[in-house]
Each structure stands twice: as C-alpha cells, then as structure tokens.
Description:
Layout: E1 3-7, E2 10-12, E3 18-25, E4 34-39, E5 46-51, E6 57-59, E7 67-72, E8 77-82, E9 91-97, E10 107-111
Parallel strand pairs: 2-10
Antiparallel strand pairs: 1-3, 3-8, 4-5, 4-9, 5-6, 7-8, 9-10
Amino acid sequence: QVQLVESGGGLVQPGGSLRLSCVVSGIRLSFTTMGWFRQAPGKQREWVAYITSGGTTTYANSVKGRFSISRDNAKNTVYLQMNSLKPEDTAVYYCKSVGADSWGQGTQVTVSS
Length: 113
C-alpha cells in the first residue's frame, strides 16, 4: 500500500518561494517515477513535474525555469522547490507514484499580496 504525505504549503507573496515535501512509504522510492500535480479551484488536476528512478526530470511549460523536483532516497522523500511564485500557482499540490492510483491529502499553496 503506497502512502504519501505532502507538507510545506502556505501563504506566500508573489515572487516568493516555497519547498514542498512528500514522504513516501510502501514502495522503494529509488525504483519508481514520482510526480507532482496540482488542482486549483474550479479546475481539473494538472501535472506539474516528474522525476524518474534515474533522476531525469521533466516539467509542465507553465513552471519551467521556476520549479525544481528532486528526491532523497535515504529519507524516502520527494521535494518540489518553487521559486518566483505567481498567483496562478495557487492550488492544492499532490505527489503521486506513476505506477499507483493513491493520492495523499495534498498541501495548500496560496500566492497572494
């Protein structure tokens, strides 16, 4: 059973930064591709970033150059560093293994002056 616990969200001004964390259990993090997704009010959930077991990363065009996904296998944790935040980044952020249908509780990110 894959368990995912997201944290690190909060209220930040435009241009600010946050680092989200996702603690993973039930799988070997080093063997799987992990992703970050987000869902804004009134919108469908959208993909943000992936990191493969080999460390290859890919990003949605809307966050390229601003967000960075990484992982620490020893800590069973995936991170999303978010810089130069914009109001349109406001959403609940979730992490997920691409090979499973489980979602965590998400963490709220609000970007507002």
